[in-house]
Amino acid sequence: MITPLETAKKKIGSFEKGKQFEEYVIKLFNEQNFKLKDWRKSEQFDYNALPKNHSDPDLELIFGRGQYKFAVECKWRQEFNDGIFWWDKKSKSLEIYKKYSGENNIPVFIVIGIGGNPSSPEKMYVTPLERIRSTTEICESDLIPYRRKPTHKFYYDIRQMRLF
Predict the structure, then answer these.
(1) Is a pLDDT exceeding 60 seen at residue 4?
(2) Which of 63, 96, 105, 132 could bond 156 through an S-S bridge, CB–CB 3.0 to 4.6 Å?
(3) What one-character DSSP code corresponds to residue 124?
(4) Would 76 be classed as within a structural domain?
């Protein structure tokens, strides 16, 4: 018989981890300043019947009174792999996000959580999509300027078009 402790220790699937991290990130947006326009929740789909917008960034938000829109893609990993954060090698997600940004004329930010668990990461980085050069990896050292406290609420600087 499996004990409750053993059940709690079982690893959760990658889609569930993604969903938990998205939920964590959403809670960091103050409802007085940000409106969640769209949330494409991490879910496991039959790849023969994917929704059209499945590849778009996870979140689309509006800051202020509706004039400042931006999108957020949420990624969580247990740890860096030899100082490297690897993107999904099978997909062309960064190219898709860049296309989405251009077509919708809005900035896209990648929120990366590292360590802890998806609902409480140890480290967090908020990187503007245009600052990411490689479509397969990003070095931890390149993320240093974008590190933030994982528990702080987000703020959007309209002059710099930067999410903090």
Answers:
(1) no
(2) 63
(3) E
(4) yes
Residue 58 forms part of a structural domain: yes
Do β-strands 68-77 and 108-114 pair in parallel, antiparallel, or remain unpaired? Answer: parallel
For tokens 């829109």, name the residue: 69
* Predicted confidence (pLDDT) per residue in 111-164, tens digit: 999 999 999 999 999 999 999 988 889 999 999 999 999 999 999 999 999 999
CB 159, CB 119: distance < 8 Å:
no
The residue among 114, 110, 118 whose CA lies nearest residue 18 is: 118
- The pLDDT value recorded for residue 42 is 61
Residues 123, 71: Cα–Cα separation, whole Å: 21
Q: Which string of b and e fits 59-98 if b means at least 16 CB within 10 Å?
A: bbbbbeeeebbbbbbbbbbeebeeeebebeeeeebbeebb
Closest CA to 72 of 163, 137, 158: 163
For residue 125, is it within any domain? yes
The Cα–Cα gap between 117 and 29 comes to 19
Give me the number of domains the chain comprises: 1
Range of the domain at 113: 13-163
Residue 84 belongs to a domain with what CATH number?
3.40.1350.10
pLDDT for residue 134: 86
